[in-house]
Amino acid sequence: MPTIELEHVSKFYKSRKRKKRSIYQETGVEDIDLTIKQGEFVFVVGGSGAGKSTLLRLISGQTKPSRGKVYIDQKDLNWMLKLSQNHAAVLFGKIWQDPTLIRKRTVEENLALAARITLGRESDQLVELRVKKVLGLVGMKGAEKRYPVELSIGECRRIELARAMIGSPPILILDEITANLDDDSIWDTLHLLNDINRKGTTVVMATHNSMYVNIMRRRVVTMNNGRITSDVKKGKYGDVLGIEHILPVAKPI
Asked: Which of 2, 11, 53, 127 has its CA 20 to 30 A from that of 23?
């Protein structure tokens, strides 16, 4: 099962100032060393612009590092993707911050398209069975003929999770998937991810939601200004940052 390793990974972006028309360099992440073993559940936390999304895109091969290497089981991920882009689809199930379901296609069509990209040539019957299976896993059985516009935000997130899981990838990369969800939907999503993780799937999840990070007590990687500032097993959002005022201390009654 794949182990993820980042060795001295940096990602820089070129930006242009309009008035001066000069090009300058912005840092996405800098000098990241990180190992994630198969079967771990890792929260990536930090403020906006801390580098969480860039880190997830580097881990999944969505973005190439400016410096350093990303390895999957000691194999260079970028080299693997040059040989075949299908490696990423097989290894990673991904959900990004922005909705990505195709609005003019049904749930079934969205999932079937992902299945064919991930699995290659499978019969329509097998694809249909996979669609039904993943919809059942995320609690959306019977939604095959519905369109994304007919679903709530939470239901769309479940469909995106079903799509990410349809190829049974060993690693799930999730970027703020609980954003804009109500508490019940967040709980349902986290319970589902917990069950998936217990069956051996690696979960790497970026989030701002400190309360649920603290309740879950999984590995917490904290980022600030593009660097990892803390990495704690069974961590808490406030503890790992080392700033007491982030989470108020309850007063005794």
From this structure: 53
Q: Where are the beta strands (DSSP E) in the chain?
A: 4-16, 23-36, 41-45, 67-72, 75-76, 92-95, 171-175, 202-206, 219-224, 227-232
pLDDT tens digits for range 70-124: 999 999 998 888 877 677 778 999 999 888 899 999 999 999 999 988 877 778 8
Q: Which of 96-101's residues contact partners 24+ apart within 8 Å by CB, and which partners?
A: 96/53, 96/175, 97/53, 97/175, 97/176, 97/179, 99/148, 99/156, 99/160, 100/160, 101/148, 101/156, 101/159, 101/160, 101/163
Kind of pairing between the strands at 202-206 and 41-45: parallel
Q: Which of 91, 105, 103, 95 is nearest to 163 (CA)?
A: 95
In a domain, 166, yes or no: yes
Question: What integer pLDDT is reported at residue 111 of this predicted model?
Answer: 96
Expressed as residue numbers, the domain containing 54 is 4-241
pLDDT category at 209 given cuts 50, 70, 90 is confident
pTM strictly above 0.70:
yes
Report yes or no on 250 lying in a domain.
no
226 within 8 A of 28, measured Cβ to Cβ: yes
pLDDT tens digits along 5-21: 999 999 998 766 555 55
CATH number at residue 150: 3.40.50.300
Whether 88 is in a domain gets the answer: yes
